[in-house]
Amino acid sequence: MAKEIKTIGILTSGGDAPGMNAAIRATVRKAINDGLKVKGILRGYQGLLNEEIIDMEKRSVSDIIQRGGTILGTARCADFRTKEGQQKGADICRKHGIDGIVVIGGDGSYRGAQALAREGINTVGLPGTIDLDIACTDYTIGFDTAINTAMEAIDKVRDTSSSHERCSIIEVMGRNAGYIALWCGIANGAEDILLPEKYDYDEQKLIDNIIKNRKHGKKHHIIINAEGIGHSTSMAKRIEAATGVETRATILGYMQRGGSPTCKDRYYASIMGAYAADILASGKSNRVVGYSHGEFVDYDIEEALAMEKEIPEYAFQVSQVLSR
What we know:
By secondary structure, this protein is of the alpha/beta class. The protein contains 11 helices and 11 strands. Helix 4 links the parallel strand 4 and strand 5. Helix 5 (143-163) crosses helix 6 (179-187) and helix 7 packs across helix 8 (232-243). The mean pLDDT is 95.
């Protein structure tokens, strides 16, 4: 028998991502439209343990779809990784009448949702991360905005790099995944793209490429370096010493996680948020919403966490051809 749901909670966990507010808005309004009550949980799992829980109405999510970040706030929570913390979280849900929770975040947030499901709280996860590193989905909330923010910044760095005839190493976010670096490397016409999944740490190849391009009259050299490789500043010093070409490192950092979300992030996050409300209203639990082959779908959390994701080989090959 499907569990009857009367009240749902919603929280955002882990790193913030543009589009999270669109997902919150859609979840709240769709759930209320379906006759459910909604409670917002502030500051992620930490806020749940602290009982930072508020009632939400349709007007609670007015004028937020265009805003970056998350109106509910987010935080890391070591206590929720423990069995005691998970049981306490489930007990607090029951105390506040929360039958199900929508969790917006990445893989770590999904594991928290999985733990709540084991404690009897219906859960649905939404892929909220700019890193695009969740294997069960072709799209994650915030990725589109992040790559557009990074692309525009890299274009600006390229302008000054060309003026000064420099080599520029531009470090983008992504944790241990290279999707932001790959997309921006292709979109910005970078001469070299360093991905954690593919990089062999042979700096001599970079040095040789810079020297070759300089002999052919190239006035600048752009290297997109993924966060999972890092050490861009020290890399720049070594490359300048080896090539004689002025080399500067630019770390784009948290600017990629902010800003008004793109149309795609607003639209996809809205559909996913509404879908999550529908899943909970139907009494299902332990699910993850994804986007695959042009369709919005959902998976069992265990199945989703067991999936593996790799850099598309053809896209990587194309990036190598286009950069030469």
